[in-house]
Design goal:
The chain has about 230 residues and is an alpha/beta fold. It contains 9 helices and 8 strands. Bound molecules: 2-phosphoglycolic acid (PGA) and magnesium ion. Its cofactor is Mg(2+).
Length: about 230
C-alpha cells in the first residue's frame, strides 16, 4: 500500500489534512462571495478562474488579491482591506451550497478512521466557516484536531499548526503525514519535518504542485490504499 510504503511498512500515527483544494472544491462558493463583495464595492466580478488562483493563504489575503485583481497584493492598503473583509465574510457565511467533496475523500477518511489512525484538519480558512462546511460535506466528527487560519497567530506555510497538533497527539514528525494541495502545505510540512502528499487537482496558484517536490503526488486519495 502506498501509505504504508511511505512509513517503512507501518501506518502513520497521525494524518493531517488541508481542507480547500484537498478535501473539498470550495472555489465556486468562494468566488460567489468574492464577486458579491466586489459588486458591493462597485467593482467588476473576478470569477471562478481567477479566484481559484488566489485561494490558499486565508480570507484576508484572498480579499487583498481580489482588490488587487492579481496574486500580488502589496499595493492594496490596510484601509481598503478592512472595508472589504467584512463584506466577504458576510457573503461567504451565507452558505457553501456549491462546495463539493472530491472523489476518494470519504472512503479514505473512513478507512483511516477504521484503522484508528488519528486525523487532524489544518486549514488557512477562518475557523467560523469550518464546522458548517464539514457538516454540509458530511465530514463531521472525523477530525480529532481542527486548526483554522485564525486559530493560532501563524498560518501555513508556518509549521506552527502542524507542531501544535503533533504535540497534542504526542507523535513525532517521522510518524506523521500531511496531505495538502498547495505550496503553503508543502513548505509547512517540510518546516515541520513531516512527510507530505500533494493532491494534483487542488489550487496551487495556477502552478503544478510537482514543482514543490512533495514526497508523493496523487490524482485521487484512494491511490494511497492501493498496492504500491
Ligand atoms: O485560504 C484558504 O482559505 C484555503 O485554505 P486551505 O487550502 O489551507 O484549506
Ligand atoms: Mg488547500
Amino acid at each position: 500500500m502506498q501509505l504504508t510504503q511511505l512509513f517503512n511498512g507501518h501506518l502513520p500515527r497521525l494524518v493531517m489534512f488541508d481542507l480547500d483544494g484537498t478535501l473539498v472544491d470550495s472555489v465556486p462558493d468562494l468566488a460567489t462571495a468574492i464577486d458579491q463583495m466586489l459588486s458591493q464595492l462597485g467593482r467588476p466580478a473576478a470569477g471562478v478562474h481567477q479566484v481559484r488562483q488566489w485561494v490558499g493563504n486565508g480570507a484576508q489575503v484572498l480579499v487583498r488579491r481580489a482588490l488587487a485583481g492579481q496574486l500580488d497584493h502589496q499595493a492594496v492598503s490596510d484601509q481598503e482591506t478592512a472595508q472589504a473583509l467584512p463584506l466577504f465574510m458576510a457573503a461567504y457565511g451565507q452558505g457553501h451550497g456549491q462546495t463539493c467533496i472530491y472523489p476518494g475523500v470519504q472512503p479514505v477518511l473512513r478507512w483511516l478512521q477504521s484503522a484508528q489512525v488519528p486525523l487532524a484538519l489544518i486549514t488557512n480558512k477562518p475557523e467560523q466557516f469550518i464546522a458548517p462546511l464539514l457538516k454540509e460535506a458530511d465530514l463531521e466528527g472525523l477530525f480529532q484536531w481542527i486548526v483554522g487560519g485564525d486559530t493560532l497567530p501563524q498560518q501555513k506555510p508556518d509549521p506552527a499548526a502542524l507542531l501544535h497538533v503533533m504535540a497534542q497527539a504526542q507523535v513525532s514528525p517521522r510518524q506523521a503525514l500531511f496531505i495538502g494541495d498547495s505550496r503553503n502545505d508543502i513548505l509547512a510540512a517540510r518546516a515541520a519535518n513531516v512527510r507530505c502528499v500533494a493532491m494534483s487537482y487542488g489550487y496551487n496558484h495556477g502552478r503544478p504542485i510537482e514543482e514543490e517536490n512533495p514526497d508523493l503526488v496523487l490524482d485521487d486519495l484512494r491511490a494511497l490504499l492501493l498496492p504500491g
